[in-house]
Structure prediction request, 317 residues.
Amino acid sequence: MKNPIAKSVLVAMLGMATTGVAQAATIYEGNGLKYTLKGDWQIQMRQKAGVDKDLDVEFDDLELKNSIVYDLDNNLQAFGQLDYSFDGEGNDSSKESAKLEEAYVGLQFDNVAVAIGRQNLAGDEFGVEAALETHTAQDRFEQVADKGDDVIRVDAKFDNLTVIASALVSADSTANGDGEAFDLFVATKLAGVELAGAYQTYEANAAGSEDQNTWGLSAAYSFGSVALAADYSTTDTGSAGDKDVSNLVAVFKLSPTTKTAVGVVKSDEGATDTTEWYANVQYQFPSQKNVSLFAEIADTDEADSDLGYLAGMRIKF
Prediction:
């Protein structure tokens, strides 16, 4: 996603871990219409953590985001989003390198927006992980369902409260359907601590599949140039038991142009239990903060795993 107001309090506080806020290019503005275009292009050299991995060129974020907003008067707006992704790894022609990422339309009244179409579920807003790339799962919502083609989503932002609800509607065709889901995400700030929680019920279209219930909690606190955060999410998968993911991360702003993050991700998939650590640094050019360089190292406790590393460049507008 993001809908016009779909930005959680937690993500905003951890903004030090990103490479800056992109400024959309206004293609046209007039007669109550505003059409903007955003770009997010990231290319990196990466050797993944694991056994006998090779160095590769990854086209990680290659996205063009088209946004249209119509002013309908009386604090009412109509909006539409059409995003294309050209992500892929190296020059492997067997991988899908161009696809429709998001396509939705909606209405916004004051601080409440309703959208329908291909977009992220509310649970996608959850999480504090600050890695550039991860070998293990970021959270349980990502593992179960975090987006779909048939999504109805409501975003509401109040003074100290963000509430997002979404429903994934089952398609007529099992081959094209993503299943059914209901997600709820809530974030607020209490005594200087950013708190967030999320809940999801999910039922896959596949015959014989069991319902999965996922919930998660997170907390984050910033003081000066340091931010600390943690989260925990778990899924009740029925007969397969519970599966958990937890994150612990620290983000440091070393200077107005340089940020670094260190974190640990622990993933328990029932039969396997994996712990991953990572450390990264990002540099923004002072004259153009949407141009950045970055590097990261990471490893896991899996048997015979080799250290992973990456370095690359990102340009946004």
